[in-house]
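Incident review: delayed structure delivery

Summary: a single-chain prediction request sat in the queue longer than the usual turnaround. Root cause was a stuck worker, restarted by the on-call engineer. No data loss occurred. The affected request and its eventual output are reproduced below so the record is complete for anyone auditing the incident later.

Affected input:
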Amino acid sequence: MSRERAVVDVIVRMGGVTLMLIVAVVFPGFSVTGQESSGTASVALPGGVRAVWDLDKAYHETTPTRERICINGLWRWQPALAKGDQVPATAWGYFKVPGCWPGIVDYLQQDSQTIFTHPSWKDTKLSGISAAWYQREISIPAGWAGRRIAISAEYINSYAAVYVDGKKSGEIRFPAGELDITAACQPGAKQILSLYVVAMPLKAVMLSFSDTASSKEARGSVARRGLCGDVYLISRPTGACIADEVKVGTSVRNGEITITAGVKNIEGSAQYALRADVSEQGRNITSFTSKPFQAIGLQDGSIAFSTKWKPDKLWDLNTPSNKYEVQFSLLDEGRKPLDTFQPIPFGFRELWIDGRDFYLNGTRIYCFAVPLDSAQVSTAAASYEGACETMRRLKSTGVNLVYTHNYGCEPGTHVSFAEILRAADDVGMLLSLSQPHFSRYNWKAADAE
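Output delivered after worker restart:
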């Protein structure tokens, strides 16, 4: 298989999560098919390189009641040299999502993605900008009519105002968020999605909740700026549905699985149930259903229940392929599905500490730990393929535990960990998240607690 064909296959499967990075960094001249709107003054892309905005070729997660489509890839982009109240009509270059804005390079952080500059701002020092515009075309599927539609940013440093066809729909703030854009969407029609993204320090982000206008003018040091995680278009039911807070807990010692899911828009007097269908490589293994519940029985908007179950195949450092998927369904009183969430992968496993000893699935383990800088180095290092390569290399030298090397969680300290976590599951690597250093936060503030 040729390099060009292999890369195109990744586009179709992954929705451009890593491919668009490869386009500019490894194979800058190959041809990618797709559609790009005309009529907007944009820089001409190099021969064979195009912005692929065809949602049919993007990564999809689809159930009978909802869908999630990845809209990563090459977007129009330009630094915001003036206050961002109006979507620019001209001077567009191109940059990739997700990715840190270029220009800040030190002993750790490195640029990994190519920016296609417009002549009007080609001499702008990009390391000094604090705001930028993003734009791309979207076409909401006709089948989404009657559903709630949202844009979701997995990790953002630090603030984004969202515009649909030039009209502001709302805002998303660090570290991540989802914005309902239903009122602005026209299923079946092509529309323009624009984001005005500002790199703000933590204090400015907090102020933005009460005074957005002043926060846009805030300055501060944000090392990794912009849309630093996957971006999705989402549709879900308008009525009772499952929220994004879903979790699977497993206990080897107790032979037990715990299912937790957030629910919203449920009627106070109605009865519901939550069903979890567990599968392995598409084959149903077992199902669990909660007792009936009402809104009054929820804890912080979530329902949780446990049941006895222990599969023969456990996830372990040497058996990372032993994984399952669970699909949550919210049922009405007649056990009819009101909403079905996308499948969630998990491994049945348990790590615990007894005295000074660590145990994984009942076996004492010795940890050889090193720091993992992938989320600080670049989007390439933090991609799924990049993280897998790093962890396989470390694992070959005897390392079995990595810890994230960020000592703060303020805007800009790292990019999204999502693909790193997925890679750790698939490679068979234990991963620990660093606890934020207390000195990074303002403990003298009135609301410090």
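Verification: The helical segments are 3-14, 19-25, 202-208, 212-215, 374-377, 379-382, 384-396, 418-427.
Action items: add queue-age alerting; document worker restart procedure.
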